[in-house]
Known about the structure:
Elements: H1 12-45, H2 48-75, H3 78-101, H4 107-135, H5 141-169, H6 172-190, E1 196-198, H7 201-205, H8 212-224, H9 227-248, H10 250-257, H11 262-286, H12 292-312, H13 318-346, H14 352-364, H15 367-381, H16 383-402, H17 405-408, H18 419-422, E2 426-428
Antiparallel strand pairs: 1-2
Amino acid sequence: MQNQPKPLPDNWARRFFTIWTGQAFSLFGSALVQFALVWWLAQESGSATVLTLAMLAGLLPQILLGPFAGALVDRGNRRLIMIAADAMIALATLVLLYLFITDQVQVWHVYTIMAIRSLGGAFHFPAMSASTPLMVPKEQLTRINGLNQTLQGLNTIFAPPVGALLISAFSTESVLMIDIATAALAILPLLFIPIPQPVRKAEQAGTEKKSLLQDVREALAYIRAWPGLMAILGMALIINGLLNPASALMPLLVTKYFGKGVLELGFIDTAFGVGMIAGGVILSAWGGFKRKVATAMLGITGIGVGILLVAVAPPQLFLLALTGMAIAGIANPIANGSLFAIVQTVITPEMQGRVMSLIMTFATAITPLSLLMAGPISDSIGIRAWFWIGGIVTVLMGVGGFFSRAVMTVEDNHRNEPAESQLSAVTTD
């Protein structure tokens, strides 16, 4: 009989939220850096191609290396991996700070630093996500994910204006220094607070250690044998492939269709960000339906409804588009927070890093291709077509999910051992 995981200590909330708070500061610092670097690239080059390449530099490391990063997370000490990832990101920012101070910075330097920061995120996200279900009671995971989505909404709203204020009052270097300081705040709690560490079955049995590629293949087989998760991943791939270009085309929709300017474009971002905060708070307080997947499908349907309101809004009714973006923002954390909670609840701890990384890779893999296709296709069929198609397909998938047995039983229909029987002994590092 396998050892059972140790019960959570009574002070689990204090331990978890001390780490979470440090990570929250670090994420805000990273959002400031992202804004500052994009602004610098826009000012330095004035080129849409440069900005597109910058986006790809931030995406490709996570897409290409994410699965292997997840495998390493499952093999290694998750607390040390989080420390190393935060430190690597801070070090990369420090190098960029030096280049700015010495006036040596070039566009390719920024691309490189963005790629390094993305690589750090490829390790940090699965490590934190995989550690959360070992630090938080199972029944609280949906609320915690709602809180994470609220934080993302806060960063969406406040990071751009704060970054703009800092850059206008001081310099890009000042923003970079803040990011280094917030990274230190993220690392500090990790130096003192232990994080539970699952023991791999192979280690318990004393069998030969698998290769990194075998670990990734094992996670792929785990996902393929889970009909509900495969169905949801297919939905995510299609929805992201349609909605990400719509997001990228939003500036053109605001200016060319609605006849508005940069202020109204800012209102669009604010409406979505405020919606995300509201949706995250709702999910944190409510906790969702007993069957988490029902909450997720409701959220997906809501995202589609919001996008359709943007599509249907006539040029003189910009307020309807703002309402649609707010609704999409509210629905976003309800969908994503519930789906993350399903994964964290059901998947065995020793595979959390790999599976979470593969899920994020699959969900975003189509983004570079869809972004490259967005321009030519929108020139042919019109910008609003992306919003019409994306909204309709998203609504159909959200509603259709309620009628799919594989989707609605996703928490039960994985063809592996139940998570409870797979749990290996959990140690503290």
